[in-house]
Amino acid sequence: MTTAVRTASLSETQRSSRPVRPSLVAALAISFLLSSTWSWAADRSGKEVVGAVCSNCHVTGKIGAPKIGDRSAWDKRTSQGLTTLTQHALNGVRKMPAHGGNPELSNLEIGRAITYMVNQSGQNWVEPVSLAAAGPRTGEMVVQAKCIECHGVGKFGAPKIGDQQAWIGRVSLGLDKVVGTAIHGHGAMPPRGGMADLTDQEIRSAVIYMFNQSTAMAKAY
């Protein structure tokens, strides 16, 4: 993916101090349950790319590379999202050369390699797939690729993933309204969250994913 990295956020809205009603959480959670399937592409897996290229530095922590398995080192990077981390690897960052020193690696393969190293260091990301082979991206994929940049830490007032009160307050106004805001942009958040190739359905799936990750009732399902 070569989409330029842009900052995305949602304006802070007034939050109610009243406790969230379990019945409201349940109704919203049940309404938003989705299931998605996808197929793997023929490109090399993240494990294969890491073994052939990335391990040269990331196994030992050579020249300051975050060491595979060092959760603390990777946690500082995962909040940036897969899109940003992939762009860093494509362009080169600090002492790491562009494409990790192997210009034959595709954008997809680099994204998979990053995902593999992140997962080996305590996370549970979904390995990227070829859009041509996979069809629509799941909400989790979209969030990991871009939305987490702001929603992972609450940057610029974006409702933080895990903040039940913030997400209930927004989604209770209507899912279509929240999705429409993400599609058209609002405040500091650009249209489509800064990923111009996202479809309306992919954006909807991302909103639902973040809502579900932010409510205890949704997690129970």
Task: Say what the CATH topology of the largest domain is.
Answer: Cytochrome Bc1 Complex, Chain D, domain 2
- Kindly report how far apart the N and C termini lie: 32 Å
Radius of gyration over C-alpha positions, nearest whole angstrom: 18 Å
| SSE arrangement, N to C | HHHHHHHHHHH
Helix residue percentage: 40-55%
Q: Roughly what is the average pLDDT, rounded to an integer?
A: 77
Which band does the percent of strand residues land in?
Answer: under 5%
> Which descriptor suits the 3D outline?
elongated
Number of helices: 11
Total number of beta strands: 0
Could you give a short account of the major beta sheet?
none
Descriptive overview:
With 221 residues, the protein is an all-alpha fold. The protein is built from eleven helices and no strands. The chain has two domains: 22-36 and 136-220, Orthogonal Bundle (Cytochrome Bc1 Complex, Chain D, domain 2), CATH 1.10.760.10; 46-131, Cytochrome Bc1 Complex, Chain D, domain 2, CATH 1.10.760.10. The protein has helices spanning 22-31, 46-58, 71-78, 82-91, 107-119, 131-134, 139-151, 164-171, 175-184, 200-213, 216-220. Helix 4 crosses helix 5 (107-119). The chain is elongated, with a radius of gyration of 18 Å. Mean pLDDT is 77; it is low at 1-16, 32-41 and 217-221.
